[in-house]
Amino acid sequence: MIAKTYSAIPYGYEGRIVEVEGDMNKGLPAFNIVGMANKTVSEARERVKSAITSSGFSFPDKRVTINLAPADLLKDGSHLDLPIALTVLVLSGQLRQEDLKNKLFVGELSLNGSLRPIHGIINIIEAARIANISEMYVPEENLAQASLIPNVTVIGVKNLQELFLHLKHEQTIQKHPKIVVENTKTDKNSPILDHIRGQSFAKRALAVAIAGHHNILISGPPGAGKTLLARAAANLLPPPSPEEQIAITKIHSIAGETDGTISSRPFRAPHHTASAISIIGGGTKAEPGEISLAHLGVLFLDEIPEFPRSILEALRQPLEDKKISVSRANAKTTYPADFMLIATMNPCPCGYLGDPTHECTCTQVQINNYQKKLSGPLFDRIDMNITVAKVDNSDLRQKSPSVQNKSSEHDIVKNNIKEALNRQRLRYGRSDIFNSSLSSHQVSSLLKLTPAAENLLDSASKKLNLSARSYFKVIKVAQTIADLDGAAEIDVAHLTEALNYRKR
User: Fold this and answer.
1) What residue spans define the domains of the chain?
2) What is the pLDDT of residue 282?
3) Residue 14 pairs with which residues in a beta bridge?
4) 75 pairs with which residues across the strands?
5) Average pLDDT of 335-349?
6) What are the tens digits of pLDDT across the range 125-145?
7) Considering only CA atoms, which of 323, 335, 337 is closest in space to residue 286?
């Protein structure tokens, strides 16, 4: 007799359907699992045996063989515990094959038969939907993630016995209502613009960068507020759309960082001692790195010259393509990496080059070597570059200036960003396209400059010797400035401000 149960596993950024086949023959009692299973899957034998007996069922005293098809697909993780147990129950006659028809099962079994949550549930649900499987049974703790996927029937299960009674039509598992995920409000642990004294130019630049999803580099001496400005961006980011919530939750679930849902844009800040694999992605399982975990959010690199040059140069391709292809001996996959880069740096190793109140102690060779860590091609991919100065100590204890209509500076800037994003959405007809993501062809066909602005751009591009990439980035930043100002066309004032953000 052959029994079959359908399941699925996450495979890179996608999901793969796995057929759990079972065969039972006479002979010495044995329980074997074949089909490119790693150690975690092989250990499922003990978990399944204990879960079946602890749930009040009998484990067959015969030779049981489980095959995980396709056999050439490497299986990893504990996702297949539940379908293996159900296959054994069908082989022993305690369940019928018809009870499992057109259903998919995933979940890790504990020794007492209860189900534990698994990673990559969104990959699995999407794979099942593509395979036209009508019902999916997942651990109850994974329901929040699974509910993000529309037009699917997902049932949360607490334990093996409850599922058995449901499949036998002796007891029905109550379907949980679709979980509504609300966008999180301001993070109280992150600073807001009202907490930052002075730096009006930097605050304006930060608003422009977020409104157009532009990469920005903030330079300045120690204590100027570079890190504070960057972290204030976390509370200025617009809330993600339902589709973006799925993408953000999916990538974090694959990495094993959450079993729930994520309703806010990520803000990732890896330390400069982090390895290339942890930032770019990779390892034996080709797992996502920090640039993918920052997808649709912010990647913050504090003191960017302190990062190894090899890591910085590896950012060039994902900054351009908005994705990263990870190839390893056992796995190959492509992860999304559409992040906004916010980086900070000092002007020199000691940090005081050009500071009128503090003497720089660095040699010219040290200064050159420090600044050369940010190569020309990488700098060319950064849309905006600003320099901030230290705020006078006498201004640090002053209260925030009063703002019109009693609204905070943070609320006004965030509202302006929201309106600029709405203008972009109306212009491009999509919510996932920002000014920064336009191709050169789209810039030429969709963005309009006044004749005076065109003359200024031609003159400036020759004097500043702008590359083709920089030329179009200036236009895209100018368009974001025009969106913040509510202008229909890019004018001289918008272009002038954008050119100020290109100074190195």
Assistant:
1) 2-167, 193-400
2) 87
3) 11
4) 37
5) 95
6) 999 999 999 899 999 999 989
7) 335
Q: Which residues contact 346 (CB under 8 A, 6 or more apart)?
A: 219, 220, 221, 222, 303, 305, 353, 370
CATH architecture, range 2-167 = 2-Layer Sandwich (3.30)
Distance CA 108, CA 100 (A): 18
3-state DSSP assignment of residue 262: coil
Whole-angstrom distance, CA of residue 88 vs CA of residue 94: 9
Instruction: Compute the distance between CA of residue 421 and CA of residue 265 in angstroms, rounded to an integer.
Output: 15
Sign of the Cα torsion 237, 242, 245, 251 reads negative
Rounded CA separation 90/66 (Å): 12
The answer to whether 279 touches 242, Cβ cutoff 8 Å, is no
Q: Are strands 108-109 and 103-105 parallel, antiparallel or unpaired?
A: unpaired
Say if CB 29 and CB 119 are below 8 A apart.
Answer: no
Which two tokens mark 273?
A: 């001692």
CA dihedral over 50, 56, 60, 65, signed as positive or negative: negative
CA distances from 501 to 212, 220, 247, 267, 342 (A): 14, 14, 31, 23, 14
Instruction: Tell whether omega for the bond before 305 is within 30 degrees of 0, i.e. cis.
Output: no
Task: Label residue 397 by pLDDT band (50, 70, 90).
Answer: low
Q: Which residue has the tokens 């091609």?
A: 377
Cite the DSSP H helix spans in 255-327. Answer: 276-280, 290-293, 309-314, 316-321
pLDDT value for 454? 94
Asked whether the beta carbons of 228 and 260 are under 8 A apart, the reply is no
Contacts of 316 (CB under 8 A, 6+ apart): 377, 378, 381
What CATH number has the domain spanning 193-400? 3.40.50.300
Q: Is 175 exposed, middle or buried (0-12, 13-18, 19+ CB in 10 A)?
A: exposed
- What DSSP string describes 431-474? SS--GGG--HHHHHHH--B-HHHHHHHHHHHHHTT--HHHHHHH
What is the DSSP secondary structure assignment for residue 137, as one 8-state letter? Answer: E
**How far is it, in rounded angstroms, from Cα 178 to Cα 165?**
23
Distances (CA, A) of 420 to 48, 337, 399, 416, 483: 55, 23, 29, 6, 5
Segment 41-74, tens digit of pLDDT:
888 999 999 999 999 999 999 999 999 999 888 8
